[in-house]
Write a structure and sequence with these properties.
With about 220 residues, the protein is of the alpha+beta class. Helices cover about 50% and strands about 5% of the residues. The protein has 8 helices and 4 strands. Bound molecules: glutathione.
């Protein structure tokens, strides 16, 4: 059986599944899809994912789309990785987080970066963007409050949810938001950033996340 292949673009929603693959620690391949050059909209890529989005995972003869679905598949395929709780309520809590992040918050990020996808009327774009930022700030305040209550997103410990939170923290910076307003989340980013799998993914994608310091010789 071939190793799984992740189609990714640095600093995008593929980041968390990429971390999960490093956490599992088994061989995998990663294919860079250059969103800015239009690669997600090419006929070839759309044959793979008709939605024209990364991430995509090829694994065990299946094509899996959606970052959350990919992470659950990998975590359940490798239960020893301990990346998901093993009780029904714990799983429900994980889905609660990842649905919200990958659908609602990803859409608010898109609204601020691509207002034309939300309104054809150029005159409305500043308002569309402003509303996207306001929605994100509300959501970020909620995230910070949750992370003030416990070390990781889930009470059971580090899980697939935590790397997904990292990429939204980075987006906050990319969008020029004052992320110092979120001290509990900042501490979470610092904590998660010490994991070899997170460091390996940052190196592989060639990106940084504020507050994450690379350790020397990390080669996860
Ligand atoms: N809900 C999807 C969102 C995926 C998504 O929005 N991917 C963006 C990058 S973050 C993308 O591939 N955009 C390419 C395009 O729109 O052409 C998931 O969680 O996987």
């Amino acid at each position: 059986m071939n190793p799984p292949t992740l189609y990714y673009c640095p600093g995008h929603m593929s980041f968390a599944p990429h971390v999960v693959l490093y956490e599992i620690g088994k061989p995998f391949e990663a294919v860079h899809v250059a969103i800015k050059e239009g690669a997600t909209q090419s006929a070839e890529f759309r044959r793979l994912n008709p939605k024209g989005k990364i991430p995509v995972l090829l694994a065990d003869g299946h094509v899996i789309t959606e970052s959350a679905a990919i992470m659950y598949y990998l975590a359940l395929r490798h239960p020893d990785s301990g990346l998901l709780p093993d009780d029904p309520l714990g799983v429900a809590r994980a889905v609660e987080w990842t649905n919200w992040l990958s659908a609602v918050l990803a859409s608010s990020v898109s609204q601020t970066l691509h207002p034309g996808r939300f309104s054809p009327d150029v005159a409305t774009h500043p308002a569309v963007k402003d509303k996207g930022i306001a929605n994100l700030l509300d959501a970020f305040t909620h995230i910070d409050g949750r992370l003030a209550e416990q070390e990781w997103a889930l009470a059971s410990g580090y899980s697939v949810v935590d790397p997904m939170l990292l990429i939204f923290f980075r987006w906050g910076h990319v969008l020029g938001l004052d992320m110092d307003r979120f001290p509990a989340w900042s501490a979470h980013v610092h904590r998660a950033g010490q994991r070899p799998a997170v460091q390996a993914t940052l190196r592989a994608e060639g990106i940084t996340i504020p507050l994450i310091v690379f350790s020397k010789g990390c080669n996860a």
